[in-house]
Design goal:
Layout lengths: L21 H19 L5 H8 L3 H22 L2 H5 L1 H21 L3 H30 L7 H26 L6 H18 L25 H31 L6 H21 L5 H25 L3 H28 L5 H29 L2 H32 L6
């Protein structure tokens, strides 16, 4: 039977791109979802790896941070690759890398191999993000009943949320908790690769391969708002990173909860609420969104500090929920500003710069917390980190207040 999405040949001899059959759209969305799910699958397994390989909480934060730094390098080196060679080859590469990372984790016998797997995961996430988002936009079109941006958001954040929850559940019910989740991820990644392979290319324009680092670009016309949004969203990402790295340690050593499903659920809530926050920002006036996000992040930091101080689960869940919502609002506000108010010729580089900042904030604070845990213990490290996050968000909030006050007192037409 012929492939229903195969490209036709027009009168000029050029191939026209495959458009949006339900199967093609589903295959791209699923590839996006499973690739991102594979990146958070290790989260509930870190305590098991620590016991198996005999490493410390600091090592866990390094293993996590290596992934985030891999994403940053991948975005800068390969962010425009799907524009150059097409969406389909990049999606195939991303899903194959996701399967490769699962296989490396499946065979891992030491920390070094885990680090290799995390770097591979980082590159897979960097490749799939731009290629899948662009492919969904091309296949669905902006007039589709299902908006491409919304589908991409749920595939992306839904994968991040579901990966950790699925791995936690499988680790609790499977006879081999460090193997079964990766067999599951490997099989799903193989199906995703097959789905992408069977569907045609969606891009009509390809510029040709030209590998070079994409220069960072902060749009001058919206520089203050860009930086404030990046700092607020980056603070939220820092909390997401620390939750991903040490939630299992907190539940195991402080609450004496050995449920991997519970660890996965806490992180699931954080990422799922980040997606909801990005949807919620569309209903908020632009001038209110970032101050609201800062207030939410400050409150979330207080809740997480309370959880550390009291050793209780409820404020941790509440803090994860609120941090996710506030982070989503800050991310949505920042991306909205870039796509509507920055120069069109620099939007791609500006978006890549924005996410490079976020993923750097995802990685480096996690290592800092690991150092604090090694020098003190988990609770004071968590409390100190929460205070730093709150201070950063308070600084952004005060900057917004000061800017608003200056705008009110400066007369129209003044220099």
């Amino acid at each position: 039977m012929g492939n229903p999405t195969v490209r036709a040949v027009d009168r000029t001899g050029a191939r026209t791109p495959a458009r949006g059959t339900g199967l093609a759209v589903s295959s791209v969305a699923f590839a996006f979802w499973i690739t991102m799910a594979g990146t958070t699958a290790p989260t509930p397994l870190y305590p098991l790896y620590g016991a198996e390989f005999g490493f410390t909480p600091f090592t866990v934060t390094v293993v996590f941070a290596v992934y985030a730094l891999g994403v940053v390098l991948g975005l800068l080196a390969f962010g425009r690759l799907s524009d150059q060679v097409g969406r389909r080859p990049v999606l195939l590469t991303a899903t194959l890398l996701s399967a490769c990372a699962a296989l490396v984790f499946l065979l891992a016998q030491n920390v070094t191999v885990m680090l290799v797997a995390r770097v591979i995961s980082g590159f897979s996430a960097a490749l799939v993000t731009g290629a899948a988002t662009a492919s969904l936009t091309e296949r669905l079109g902006q007039d589709s009943r299902i908006k491409p941006a919304t589908l991409a958001l749920f595939a992306n954040m839904g994968g991040l949320a579901c990966g950790t929850l699925l791995a936690g559940i499988l680790a609790d019910i499977a006879p081999s908790p460090l193997r079964t989740p990766w067999v599951f991820m490997l099989v799903l990644a193989a199906f995703a690769t097959l789905g992408v392979l069977l569907n045609g290319e969606s891009s009509a324009h390809r510029s040709g391969l030209s590998l070079q680092f994409q220069p960072l670009h902060i749009p001058g016309e919206i520089r203050p708002d860009f930086l404030r949004s990046a700092m607020a969203a980056g603070a939220g990402f820092a909390v997401l990173g620390v939750l991903t790295a040490v939630t299992g340690l907190f539940l195991g050593t402080v609450l004496h909860e050995d449920s991997h499903t519970l660890t996965g659920f806490v992180v699931f809530v954080a990422f799922a609420c980040t997606a909801l926050g990005q949807l919620f920002v569309r209903t908020i006036r632009p001038g209110v969104a970032l101050p609201l996000a800062c207030l939410g992040l400050i409150a979330a930091a207080g809740l997480i500090a309370t959880a550390m101080a009291t050793g209780t689960l409820t404020p941790l869940l509440a803090g994860a929920t609120l941090n996710g919502l506030a982070t989503g609002i800050a991310v949505g506000h920042g991306i909205g500003g870039i796509t509507t108010r920055s120069a069109p010729q620099h939007r791609g580089a500006s978006v890549s710069t924005f996410f490079a900042i976020l993923y750097t904030m995802l990685a480096l604070p996690a290592i800092g917390v690991g150092v604090l845990i090694r020098e003190t213990s988990l609770r004071p490290a968590g409390e100190t980190f929460s205070a730093v996050v709150a201070a950063l968000c308070l600084g952004v909030l005060l900057s917004l207040v000061r800017t608003g006050r200056n705008a009110r007192v400066t007369p129209p037409g003044a220099a």
